[in-house]
Known about the structure:
- By secondary structure, this protein is α/β, with parallel strands linked by helices.
- 39% of the residues lie in helices and 14% in strands.
- Helix 3 packs parallel to helix 10.
- The chain starts with a helix and ends with a helix.
Amino acid sequence: MGLDVGAVRAMYPALSDGYAYLDGAAGTQLPAPVIDAISAAHRSGLGNSDGAFPASARSDAIVAECRQAVADLVGGNPAGVILGPNMTTLTYRLAAALARDWRPGDEVIVSRLDHDANIRPWVQAAGRAGAVVRWAEVDLPAGELPAGQYDALLSERTRLVAVTAASNILGTRPDVAAITARARAAGALSYVDGVHATPHGPTDMAALGADFYATSAYKWSGPHIGAVVADPELLEPLRPDKLDPAPDNVPDRFEWGTPSFADLAGAAAAVDHLAGLDTAAAGTRRQRLLTSMAAAHEHERRLFGVLAGGLAAMDKVTLYGSARDRTATVYFNVAGLTPRAVAGHLAGWLVNVWDGHNYAWELAGALGIRDTGSAVRAGLVHYNDRSDVDRLLAAVAELAG
Length: 401
């Protein structure tokens, strides 16, 4: 059947304010079932984990269901789902744990395509361990990350390769499977940042070859929590810092402090919401997710053709990136105007977009625009429609005409 965008939009209360929410790459709005799940969790009465009373048991059940839901979304094992406040925090936590075994002269590979959350934690951990940082470079102006360059970057001393499944500003989807296969052949682990990729199509971390796969619920219609998914056997030997009385089992030992149980309930509800985007989808939740996310991808792809084509036709607009495989994300500037001025003008048209480097710090530097305000980012997700795109194009045309 595919995706009925009108029916989908009706589930998002925030969309009734008249704005075109094209800021999804920075965070999506919440559908009513997610809002209701968070509210219901609070109304039911919650307690801390592992207690002898029903409110505690409800919290434990919420955690278990959230782990299963995230595992279904990415094709992972619920026993290896680490939950936390956000991807950045969890990546720092994993970097510190993994780096305990690094020695001077060991090597880590990062890429300039990545969000800084999948660069700086590894660079800083390597610095403390005396390890060498090697850089995979972006092929500009297309914005591709050639997998072949990893042949020269990898060695027997490589301990980890950190790479994004999709650039959060250019949308580039590198050939992650080819990169991780090279890493595995060299005996290195792969840490894949799936924050920007996960909302835009079916995810299979095993097919990607990801030893660790990071994602953020607030990018796929959930609340502000993050998750890193790995094989629990891979996590077992890792010993992160933790409080002495805190649980020592996997994955609990990686989760510091008391979580927001209601938000975890919301994240599980968001996965259920995604699984139902295509009302004809059938089977297990995992099967329905694959069908529905494929429908979402196709919907975004059609809209993206209109958006990118319309901007490319404007003489005063500079578009960055033209990768063969990309998410529905555009990054652009308008001649003679700062990105903030363009974003402000669009806000006057009731269009929400982001301006700046969007934490793609290295990539904005490689593009030569980091110190000049970077650019404007507009990103499509499954609840955007043609009217959102048309309004943005009309607003930019008024500036570039």
